[in-house]
What does this fold into?
Amino acid sequence: MSTNTAPRRSRRQETALWRAPVRRVERVTPRLARITVGGEELAGFVSAGTDQNVMLYFYPDGVELPATLEAARARWSTVRPLTRTYTIRRHDPVAHEIDFDFVLHDAAGPACDWAKHATPGDQLIFVGPSPAYQPDPSADWHLLAGDETALPAIAAILDALPPTADARVFVEVEDAAEEQPLRAPVTWVHRGAGGSLTDAVAAAELPTGRVDAWLAGERSAMVALRAHLLDQRGFDRRAVRPTTYWRRGEVGS
It folds into this structure.
């Protein structure tokens, strides 16, 4: 059994409201859109890396958009935006750009609906960033597992790991068309064919030694996967970090 300490997180940066125009819209897969926002408005944004996230603010059409977090909060009693938390896929401090990946669900939701119709010039408002997970540099190997909502964070974590790091990656998506190239080999699990993330990890031959495990996705899947890693695999609970990104049956993203 591992004796890792708990996974660390970076310090929180100063929370601020950011308002930036859309620069590009790219359909990465049939069900995923990558939207790039950028401009001098983001010159002061400091990235925390890996699974850092921000809170997206969506206002009704015709509402004057706030320029600061204080202005937004001052209007909450009369105009309160719909909010959704999203992981930053990429931050380019030189070009002052940020990429967000939106899974285009069939169910309606403020973020999904906005992403489906976003065009260059549209404004995106967000607040953050959050602290970010810091991979354990003393771990013998790293386990990364999640569904498509976790792909931005998984990709960012892989970018943060040394090239020689041993990373085992499991990602559940709808089908083969939703697979993306990543920096490490991936075990792709196709939900549409009956696959599940927990079953794929349970069936895998995993390394021995000290593990650093990062997991994210739907709540019930995270509960089941964590239970497997602790109860069947015997992982140290301090080395297993599950995060719920969404809950089945709730209002869309």
Q: What stands out?
A: The mean pLDDT is 93. The first strand starts at residue 8 and ends at 9.
